[in-house]
Write a structure and sequence with these properties.
Blueprint: E1 3-9, H1 15-28, E2 33-39, H2 46-51, E3 73-79, H3 87-94, H4 97-102, E4 109-116, H5 125-137, E5 140-141, E6 167-169, H6 179-202
Parallel strand pairs: 1-2, 1-3, 3-4, 4-5, 4-6
Helix pairs in contact: 1-6
Length: 203
């Protein structure tokens, strides 16, 4: 039976979505892994989104809390809002009380990726503050550490991401994920999918 890895994300301007697509490729490159992209529900109205000049959402299906139980592992992605996950993702997790009550997600590995507007905008705190959600569900946080190798030590070019997970800098919104950031995202997908597969096989 295939190992199921769900990449679940929220993206307002497309930066996190681009990372998610690359993470999907990385996870799917692991033999025996079935990877799938999901979006969490939007809680802002179309009118508000239009005023924020947010583009149309991608075509990934919208996930329900109960569908999380189907997966063997997760990689959660979101932009930062003042150093924390945005309300859209928090609202989704707030709706997982039923899964928490039964500890349906306990023991399942989960990684985190993110986007911030600037270098001091929360690349690490966004991931760090999100770990509390995993802890209460009994999930196993899987950071990438320094497994990405030399790419972790890039100093000549602006690069998002950290030992917590892949990341990008959105700037004013016009900056797109760089080639190195996308490579790191691919690595994260492959790395966490490999660990998820090992844990499922040994269970």
């Amino acid at each position: 039976m295939a190992t199921k890895v769900y990449i679940v994300y929220y993206s307002m301007y497309g930066h996190v979505e681009k990372l998610a697509q690359e993470i999907l490729k990385g996870a799917a490159s692991v033999e025996g892994v079935e990877a799938k992209l999901w979006q969490v529900p939007e809680i802002l109205s179309e009118e508000i989104l239009a005023k924020m000049t947010a583009p149309q959402k991608g075509d990934a299906p919208v996930i329900t809390p109960d569908e999380l139980a189907e997966a063997d592992g997760f990689i959660f992605g979101f932009p930062t809002r003042f150093g924390m996950m945005p309300a859209q993702f928090k609202a989704f997790l707030d709706a997982t009380g039923g899964l928490w009550k039964t500890q349906a997600l306990a023991g399942k590995p989960a990684g985190i990726f993110y986007s911030t507007g600037s270098q001091g905008g929360g690349q690490e705190t966004t991931a760090l503050t999100a770990i509390t959600q995993l802890v209460h569900h009994g999930m196993i946080f899987v950071p990438i550490g320094y497994t990405f190798g030399a790419g972790m030590f890039e100093m000549e070019k602006i690069k998002g991401g950290s030992p917590y997970g892949a990341g990008t800098f959105a700037g004013d919104g016009s900056k797109q994920p760089t080639e190195l950031e996308l490579e790191q995202a691919f690595h994260q997908g492959k790395y966490i999918a490999t660990i998820t597969k090992k844990l499922k096989v040994s269970a």
